[in-house]
Amino acid sequence: MADLQDDIPTTTEVGEDDILPDAPPAVAVPLEPGRPRPEQPDAELLAQAHTLLAEHPVADGYSGLPWALRHLSWYDLQLGEAAVDTDVPRLREGHVGALFWSLHLPEGRGGESPVEAALEQLDLVRTVIEAHPEGLRLVRTAGQIIDARNCGRVAVVLGPAPGAVVADSLGILRILRDLGLRVLTLAGTVWAGASGLTRFGEEVVREMNRLGVLADVSGASPATAERTLALSKTPVLCSRSAARALRPHPANLPDELLVALGEAKGLCMVPLTAEQTGPTVPDVADHLDHVRDVAGPECVGLSGTYDSGVVHPRDLADASRYPHLIAELLRRGWSGTELSLLTWGNVQRVLRSADFTARAAQHRRDTSTARIGDLGTP
User: Where is this region: Disordered (predicted)?
Assistant: First the structure.
């Protein structure tokens, strides 16, 4: 089903005493006086977590599964696949109702153009979904996510894709949108750099609004993120960003940017990675607490980052472990409403907003034919 390539690394998770190379130290955030940090949630909290997730499943903001599957000569996601972090049985055990499949290339990979790689991964995604019709369904809209869930399928949303796939042609962006792309990462492009968006970059964001493609500013410069928040008429995503106040990772967001994201009704999707959030479930929960408190409960989501080659916190090794995280948040006093927004509601809101804005914009704005050479620098 997939070409045989180099072996992919085995999924790993860390414990409290493990040391991550080159990872900045976590900043300890104390719990309320007298509140312990248990290693495992008690049975009652875990049962409550399962009950809540059965009603409000997880919309996972980032999965590297398409690239991971390229390294396997054969796989069966319906029965279970030990070579990856994600398969249908574990998605169901973890109550994952929707999954954003990343089209990013691994860092340092050369010899393959971003457009070529994205198209090949789009083709693979379609092949995988067609081979697992009882478990997976490709969707484009918030309504189709609901339909897939009602039919017992996990909804697959295409994106984020690297902004480099656009090159200097908005026509490529439109073609990718026609193929189902819903999220584009702005970082790592010549038109969204340290000084912010160029004039062409601004035109890219406007055309994304017209098409209903969400802008992802994870890893982008502060200037790019701030300009995108000001310019975009649809909510802006941070598909893999936690709180820099707790852990100074370059992809994590400072509080002032979290505040701006909250004011713009964007969405910060906290990644389940040991490097960005810390080696334990309580560490991840600390970041979720912080983002909720600074940006607001309507602006925080979850990003599993499974099958992307990162190290995961202990007890969050694969897509089945979400109930353990939700149990920890229940322990901390998160309300049912806050948890339903975290897992499901906020992603639905963002996608619906993008669809509504796109329909309105298409009546007011013609298709853009701008190219990078036509607009020059800021």
Answer: 1-40
Closest CA to 93 of 41, 138, 58: 58
Q: What is the per-residue pLDDT for 26? A: 35
- CATH fold label, 59-104+113-160+236-363: TIM Barrel (3.20.20)
Read off the pLDDT band of 8 (50, 70, 90): very low
Cβ(136)–Cβ(154) under 8 Å?
A: yes
Are the C-beta atoms of 316 and 85 separated by less than 8 Å?
no
Burial class (CB in 10 A: 0-12, 13-18, 19+), 192: buried
* Helices 281-295, 322-331: inter-axial angle, 10-degree rounding: 60
Query: What's residue 167's pLDDT?
Result: 83
Domains of the chain: which residue ranges? 59-104+113-160+236-363
Rounded to whole angstroms, the Cα distance separating 59 from 347 reads 7
Tell me the percentage of the chain whose pLDDT exceeds 90. Answer: 77
The residues near 152 (Cβ < 8 Å, ≥ 6 apart) are none
Distance CA 228, CA 359 (A): 20
pLDDT computed for residue 107 by the predictor? 66
Single-letter residue type at 269: M
- 237-238 and 183-185 strand pairing: unpaired
Can you give the pLDDT at residue 109? 58
Q: For the whole prediction, is pTM greater than 0.85?
A: yes
Residues in CB range of 4: below 8 A, 6 or more apart? 71, 72, 73
